[in-house]
Amino acid sequence: MSAATLDLATRLGSLLERRGWRVATAESCTGGLVAGAITDIAGSSAWFERGFVTYSNDAKTEMLGVLGETLAAHGAVSEATAREMVAGAFERSSAEVVVAVTGIAGPSGGTPAKPVGLVCFAWGRRGSAVHSSTRQFPGNRETVREAAVTTALDRLIELAAS
Fold it and tell me: HSE (CB half, 13 Å, CA atoms) of 91?
């Protein structure tokens, strides 16, 4: 992890710890890198509840309850799927805040409609609305995944600070 990513994870931890909150992650294209950045911080067990790495559609359905209909209609890389990933993480954890990441890191797998570098995010606080957004990141697999981790941590910091 880069120093900037570790700084974001440290800031997140401070905010969560002050509020007595814990976080869960639901990850696809990042393969656990968001959880990895968080758990690189000593003492993160006080504020990291759990992470779900759901790389396949079957894992999204089995572990997070993402509906097959959602996957069929919108695809794994969609805000609809990311929002269901957040909902499933809330149902299967005691975290107060959750972030979900699903995308196409490359170098293959992209289409004209969903090119490499397309990443969908969703995040929410327990009992509040779930928000989502889609970003297109340039670069290779490593830079797309790092940008996705940074964005996920930024969203969590916004939640923890509000």
Answer: 11
CA distance 5 to 90: 24
- Residue 88: enclosing H or E segment and its boundaries? helix 79-91
Q: Give me 13's structure tokens.
A: 């931890």
DSSP 3-state of 37: helix
What pTM value is reported for the model? 0.97
For residue range 73-132, list pLDDT tens digits in order: 999 999 999 999 999 999 999 999 999 999 999 999 999 999 999 999 999 999 999 999
The counts of H helices and E strands in the chain are: 6, 5
Structure tokens at 106: 């490359």
